[in-house]
Design goal:
Helix content: 40-55%
Strand content: 15-25%
Number of strands: 5
Shape: rod-shaped
Radius of gyration: 31 Å
Number of helices: 5
C-alpha cells in the first residue's frame, strides 16, 4: 500500500491506458477524455504523491473540461460530412429527362447524367412524353420511379438528340 501511495502516478497511467484501450471499442471520445484526466492526475501524482485529493480534483476538472470543450469539436470535425449514399441510392432526388415515353405499363426511359435508366411513373397512372423533366423518387430494382417537375424541355433539346448505345435498335 505504501508503494501505491508513493507511486500514484503509475496507477493513474494504468487507468489512462485502460480507458484508452476501452475507447478503441467505443469510438465515442468519452473514454478518451477521461483518459486525458487520468494523465493529468498522473502528472500531479508525480509531483505531489501524497495529495490524493488534489490528484482526484485535477482528474475530474480535466475530464470535465475535455468533455465540455474538446470532445464536441472532435465529434463535429469527424462527423461533419453528409450521409454516404451508395449504389443506386445516389440518384434519388436528381432530375433527368424522359427520352422514351414513360407509362404505367413500363418500357420508358430517362437520361440522367449521360446514363440511360429504365423508368416508370410514381403514381402508376401517369404518362410522360419525351422531353419531360422528371425527378427520381426511388429506385425499384434497376428502374427509376419518377414524377414530373417543371416545364417540359422542347423535343429538339440536344440531350435528347444524342444517340446512346443503350437505345432500342431500329424497328424494321
Amino acid at each position: 500500500m505504501d508503494w501505491l501511495r508513493d507511486n500514484a502516478w503509475a496507477a493513474w497511467l494504468g487507468i489512462a491506458v485502460v480507458l484508452g484501450l476501452a475507447e478503441l471499442a467505443s469510438l465515442d471520445f468519452t473514454l478518451l477524455m477521461l483518459a486525458a484526466g487520468a494523465i493529468a492526475a498522473a502528472g500531479v501524482g508525480a509531483f505531489f504523491p501524497h495529495l490524493l485529493w488534489l490528484q482526484i480534483v485535477v482528474a475530474l476538472i480535466t475530464s470535465a473540461a475535455m468533455l465540455a470543450a474538446i470532445r464536441p469539436l472532435l465529434v463535429r470535425k469527424l462527423h461533419h460530412g453528409g450521409e454516404l449514399k451508395t449504389g443506386s441510392q445516389h440518384v434519388i432526388g436528381r432530375t433527368g429527362v424522359v427520352v422514351k415515353e414513360i407509362h404505367p405499363d413500363g418500357g420508358g426511359s430517362i437520361k440522367l447524367n449521360g446514363e440511360l435508366w429504365t423508368a416508370r411513373p410514381y403514381d402508376e397512372v401517369s404518362t410522360f412524353p419525351p422531353g419531360t423533366r422528371v425527378e427520381i423518387m426511388s429506385i425499384d430494382g434497376a428502374t427509376a420511379v419518377v414524377y414530373p417537375v417543371g416545364d417540359p424541355f422542347p423535343h429538339h433539346h440536344p440531350e435528347l438528340d444524342q444517340p446512346t448505345k443503350d437505345t432500342d435498335p431500329p424497328q424494321a
